[in-house]
Each structure stands twice: as structure tokens, then as C-alpha cells.
Amino acid sequence: MERVRRVARERRYSSRTEDAYVYWIRRYIYANDRRHPADLGEAEVRTFLSALAAEHHVAPSTQNQALAALTFLYAKVLERPLTRIDGIAPAQPTRHVPVVLSDGEIRAIVNHVDGPPKLCLMLMYGSGLRLLECLRLRVKDVDIERRQVVVRGGKGDKDRRTPLAEACITPLRGQLATRRGQFVHDRRTRTGTTEITPALARKYPNIDTDWRWQYLFASTRTFVDETGHRRRHHLHETVIQRAFRNALAAAKIAKRATCHSLRHSFATHLLETGSDIRTVQELLGHRDVRTTMIYTHVSKVGALGVLSPADRVWSSDG
Alpha carbon of 181 to those of 76, 92, 236: distances in Å? Predict the structure, then answer.
């Protein structure tokens, strides 16, 4: 497993991808009585993937993740690529129409949230951010004067710029003032920030105590890392997810919405107000425009923005 982690880091995989691959490889080993993967092959891989679908009833995307982990294990770690596995191919993921919230629903949800979670939800909708992209924002990434947010190392390790809504300016200034006070305390206690790469730490020795590199949404608790230094991480995603679920229930909204629905709503509302789909693609950070095209299926205008013939029939009765 140490070799798996090392090869994943050499190839610049994200920490989440690394953890997911380690999980599936370990599960694969346990499913085969803890035998070394070098002693196993295509037959065992096929049996394992088949059991995931037939016995454990995992989602197609979950089965694909397990297949990707095992392909990585044999091709990159053991250097013995898998040949064709008869009967097992990448599963076709189920395509769901994204849940989109109306203006009134978004307003009702945000009005039932207070503190940093409220600003986080406003930024997710106002700038089209993913949850972790929002929580990982640092002070230097928010340009109030130019009304821009810079997303660093988003999905696919890509950077992008996205607009900062005017409605977020006042609460953002308040959050920065609160964080400044917390930062002053951290400087006195020699508490640094987290997720600073070794290369940056070598180039800028005091970067973890630099104001510009502090998280906008910092955790209220600190911890001591393996080197003995005290650190402050960003807010955990469950804090925002819990606040959103509670607000959704308080607003009595029956839609099966999540925090990510705010990003879906950002894209759909931009298309409805006449924004070009290529512009929306750039703002969302999608590699392929076909990914962005799904929002035309829920937009009131565009490819599927048609009027139901029932409205014409029954409106004529009046």
C-alpha cells in the first residue's frame, strides 16, 4: 500500500483519488483472502467487479471507480497491465437531470442560514463553486476590487476565474474582519495553515503564517500535525452540508437538493439570462462543452425551452 500511495503521488493524483484507490485495492485484497495482487489476475478482478454489481448493488460510477483503481494497481504499480476482462466493461453511469432551485427557493434557503455557512452558500451560487472549492478559498483568492474569485486547483487540478456577486461583498468584508482577528491570535500561538506543498514551503519558509494564504473559511479548532506543529484547517464540508439540509427543511422545499444544486442553479440561470454556453463552460471549469450541455435540459430557454401544447389548449378555454 505504501507503493500505491507513492506512485499516486508521483503522478500528481489528488489526495481524494489516492484515498479512493487505496480503499478499493485494500478491499480487493481482503476479498481474495489477503493474497498479494501479483498472485492474482484478470479472473479475480472480474469476480470482484461482478460481485460489486450483482451482490453489493453498487452504483455504476462506484464500479467504475473500483475498476480504475485496479487498472492503476496493475498498470502503474505492479507494471503488469490487465488484458481484456471478458464480460466486464466500464459501466454506463446513470444520467440524472440536475436539481435546479428557483430564485425564491435560493433566497429562502440562504435566509435560514447564519454565519460563515451563509456566505459559503452565497458564494457557491453567486460564483458557481463546488463545495470544496469554496471551503479551500484563501484570502488572496478573493479580489473584492475586481469582483473576481480565483479557484486554485479545482477539479482536474485546473485554475479558473469566476465573478464575485455584489450581494456577497458586505458579508465577505465581515468574514475577512473576523478571520483577521483569528489570524492575529494564531500568529501569537504560532498556528499555521494547512495544505501548503513542500515546494512552496521551501521557497517561502513562513508561508503558513502569511495572511494571504489563510483560509477564508477556517475551522474553529486547531490540531497538531505529525511534525509537532499546530495547524488550522478549513471548515469541514459536513458543516455546510448540515446547514444546507436544515435550511432546506426549514424552507419547506420538497426538491431533492444538495449544496451542489447551487452550482447547477448558477449555470442554469446564466443560460436562461442569455449567457453563451461556452462562457458558462469556462466559468464552471468543464473540460468538454457536452458536460455543460446538460443544463440546457433544465433551462426554461434554449434547446428544450419549449412551451407545452397543453398550455395552448387549456388557455384557449378561458
Answer: 47, 50, 20
SS3 content of the chain, % helix, strand, coil (to 5): 55, 5, 40
Q: Residue 7: name the closest of 69, 67, 51 by CA.
A: 69
* Angle at CA of residue 283, ends 277 and 288, nearest 5°: 60
Query: Which residues, 6+ apart, have CB-to-CB distance to 246 below 8 Å?
Result: 112, 113
Catalogue the active-site residues. Answer: 130, 155, 260, 263, 286, 295
Looking at residue 234, the DSSP 8-state letter turns out to be B
- Domains, the chain, in order of start with CATH, read 2-77 (1.10.150.130), 110-148+165-237 (no CATH)
Strand-pairing partners, residue 142, are 149
Task: Report d(CA 230, CA 183) in Å as an integer.
Answer: 13
Instruction: Round to the nearest angstrom and report the end-to-end CA distance of the chain.
Output: 71
pLDDT tens digits, one per residue of 241-297: 999 999 999 999 999 999 999 999 999 999 998 899 999 999 999 989 988 888 887
